[in-house]
Amino acid sequence: MRYDYDLSVIGLGPAGMAVAVMASNMGLRVLGIEQRALGGECMTVGCIPSKALLRMAQSRHVFDNLDRWALEGGSPPHPARPFARIAEHLTYVNDKKTTAMFSKVDLKLREGAASFVDPHTVAVGGKEYTAKRVFICTGTRPAVPPIPGIDKIDFLTNETLFALSEIPESMVIIGGGAIGSEMAQAFSRLGCKVTVVHMDPYLIPQADPEAGQLLEQVFSDEGISVYNGRKITGVDKENDQIVVHTDRGEKLVGKELLIAAGRRYDFSSLKLENAGVAYDKRGIKVDKALLTSQRNIYAPGDCNGAHLFSHAAMHQGMIALMNAMIPWPFRMNFRRYLVPWTVFTEPQVSHVGAMEKELKERGIAYEVVEERYEDYGAAIAEGIAIGSVRAYVSKTGRIYGATIIGEGSGEMIGEWGLAIQNKLRMHKIMFLQHSFPTMSFLTKRVSETWMMNRMKNPLLKAMARRLF
Ligand SMILES: Cc1cc2nc3c(=O)[nH]c(=O)nc-3n(C[C@H](O)[C@H](O)[C@H](O)COP(=O)(O)OP(=O)(O)OC[C@H]3O[C@@H](n4cnc5c(N)ncnc54)[C@H](O)[C@@H]3O)c2cc1C
User: Which of 47, 269, 303 maximizes ligand 1 atoms within 8 Å of its Cβ, making it the mutation to test the pocket?
Assistant: First the structure.
């Protein structure tokens, strides 16, 4: 059969972009369909605007502290029009960078939601297009918990947050995960009185407790109120303020309410049943090659629910495309690749590999090797002495996982990921020189500490004395 395209890609966020741009550069005929904006959630209402806002908030915080330490008089003004500035930057990126990447893709942009007619045919904008293979890259939407009264409140989600005209005077955030915590610190540092309320026992519940507890201490020092372990019993409005009621009888009040309480999957417009693609409430079902239940359709990215991160979505896009060209026995298993992650608060929280709680549950013997920023002269001198580099390691130096809390952790975690994924042991890190005085030097220090711990063995000590 002759198809209109080699492949069609539905949704052009990080996953869809990876597929469409790589395939078109390989000379394949690509149809790209996006109902909203190129770059998807990540570029428009996710990673990029949220990190831009955090950067502005961080600069403001530095000035505030300078002011406290050294300057006379009042604080500098808040950054002018933060959301308008972010929008200007995003428009520039879209017009000058992203659009050019799609020059070889046949784009159907803002023509509506694509839907399947059959496994090879997709309809959009009143027309039908056939393709040999289809890649579903439709991501997720913000979940809104069924809180009594929520339907009568004008609340914010990440899809509306960055369209605010100014920083509100106060805000309640429902959700203490990555998005809730990042936005809590950003808005607070930009002058908003922030309250975070959530059901988990500590912030960033996907990490080990120390990270969330440390972050809560920092939040408290910065004036952010955190209510852990609360069930929300209702929301309503009193005197132009939104009131969030908890199961402990608290009334948490804010001018705005941000819901950052997880994600949901909405495949209603796609008509997956016409293509025979199976899904459930945790996303589209895929095998290790990222193939769906229909043998010509792949589903990389958030839409399959495996890992909700942009870098994972891009990586899966690349793997799905390669698997579409590789014979079955040689296809790549996307689950074999580690997924590091970072929460971009200050201090940043990053992790890769096994969590300590996971090692305990699986009964794996491990040693915790840790270096603290507060013991590192460079970190003290630079005023960033909060956090630690912590690795979970076997007796023989095999690295199971690493958690870094502190300045630069998002940049540092990649080295640990490389070591774990390639089964490098601790001595390999020890013999790698690291620039000084960087925070990544702490990674080398962790490996040296691990080696020094070996020297507690009397036999090795005796050997060292003899050989010296
Ligand atoms: C506030 C916030 C901050 C975040 N920060 C980070 C971060 O710092 N680092 C990180 O790694 N991740 C972050 N994430 C997560 C990240 O945004 C997602 O993991 C990533 O965008 C997923 O990429 P994707 O391509 O799978 O889907 P998406 O980016 O969601 O893209 C899917 C696209 O499909 C389109 N679409 C859906 N249905 C149809 C249809 N029927 N027809 C046509 N088009 C359709 C949508 O319009 C959308 O553009 C953040 C998320 C949020 C909300």
Answer: 47
Amino acid identity, residue 131?
A: A
How much distance in Å is there from the Cα of 449 to the middle of ligand 1? 40
Ligand 1 near 113 CB (within 6 A): yes
Given a cut of 70, whether residue 80 has pLDDT beyond it is: no
- Class for domain 347-460, per CATH? alpha beta
Position 66 pLDDT exceeds 70? no
CATH 3.50.50.60 fits 5-142+264-336, yes or no: yes
Q: Where do the CATH 3.30.390.30 domains begin and end in the chain?
A: 347-460
Q: Angle at CA 444, nearest 5°, toward 442 and 450?
A: 105
Integer Cα distance of 298 and 201 in angstroms: 37
H-state helical runs in 295-408: 310-323, 356-361, 377-381
Nearest atom in ligand 1 to the alpha carbon of residue 300 is: 26
Q: Is 134 exposed, middle or buried (0-12, 13-18, 19+ CB in 10 A)?
A: buried
Query: Could you give the CA distance from residue 46 to residue 410 in angstroms, rounded to a whole number?
Result: 17
- C-beta 10 within 6 A of ligand 1: yes
Looking at residue 70, its pLDDT comes to 54
Which residues, including other chains, have CB under 8 Å from residue 69's CB and lie 6 or more apart? none
Q: Quote the ligand 1 centre to 437 CA distance (angstroms).
A: 36
DSSP-derived letter for residue 268 is: G
pTM above 0.85, yes or no: yes
User: What pLDDT was estimated at residue 400?
Assistant: 98
